[in-house]
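Researcher: I'm preparing a figure for a lab meeting and need a structural model of a single chain. I don't have an experimental structure, so a prediction will have to do for now. The sequence is pasted below. Please return the structure as tokens so I can convert it later.
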Amino acid sequence: MSITKETTARNPSVGADGGQSSKTYTPSIAETDAEFNDDFSDSPDFFQKLQRAQDPDFLNTVSYNELMEETLPSRRAVIDGLLGTGVYLLAGAPKIGKSFLVAQIAYRVSTGTDLWGYRVHGGTVLYLALEDDKKRLQERMARMFGVEGCDNLHFATHAGQVGQNLDKQLKNFLAEHPDTVLVIVDTLQKVREMTTEYSYASDYDVISSLKQLADSYNICILLVHHTRKQPAGDSFEMISGTTGLLGGSDGALLMKKENRTDLTATLELVSRDQPEQKLYITKNPESLVWELDHSETEPWKESSDPILVAVAKLVTAQTPRWEGTPTELVTALGLPDQSNRLTRHLNVKAGRLLEEFGIAYENKARHTGRRITLRYAAEISPQGDPRRCDGKTPPPKTSSQSSQPSRIVADGEEAVDFGLLE
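Model: Understood. Here is the structure written out token by token.
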């Protein structure tokens, strides 16, 4: 076990994305070979699994225990509680203000500024405004946000179709702008194949194609779409097309007005990863920006994790690196000897540890045993986060900024309650 003080960090800048940054430093050949040799297994089970993974006649399964032993990339949020990685729909009747809303989302994400009190994780945004021209875009953005813009909000008024050249166009843009977090398509109808008949299968396929791209690049693709005139028992059944659109998506936002001339609207959210919400919003008649009036339900917030709080006390700007075995980490944190449960807990919570406390977690199996490395990643980029227009890197949340952990007091001193490991 070792704790060292570093003046120059080798890791990349860390985006506020709820997961490990995709911009990792390039290790030396010796480091790469050492890690490969340490992780490589010559057991019969290893080769059997490898053969089965490549055989289409076998299912590639993983046991519960094997799943808990993996450290997997986190699904990052673009706007906490509203938009995450994957494909989302924004549906509503024509001409009720959907384009103004997505322009507002695009601007907020590109500048890294919060939307209606929801935390925004800034990055490059591509806005395909396929029903507009550049003059309309210019006038709309200037009226809403002024003439001082930024370079990481990109617009296009023409694009290809899903399954044809749109896929290549998006991949080329993402290759040129690897810090992209959000792609907005206004509207979906403009990029799908024109036909007089749509089926559940065709609707599901068009969403699946875009979802595969979104998941591969860990981004959000927000599709603007229309609703039908017919009322429905479930509001989301009003989305034009079959249920294949909603079924294939990761989430949907439904925008509704009582009367077309109203400045007020509701915005309902359903998602695979978040509780349902209903927001009441009002359009500012001067700037045309949508403002939050109130929410029907309070946004769900994950409770504080005392294990992560303890790790944040161990790895700080003053001691930015810790390395050792799981048993040594248990000792360093003052926990009961449950190293296996601790490492599995950190495997699951690695993205949150980075997001809230700026600490990157690595868990490697070596011939000499398993080694854990913890890095204080917030020290990595003194030049700032290039994904924000203002060039500033948002600092990690401190424990005081997060919801307070449960605590116990012994001998007049405060200590973290590690009930999670009991």
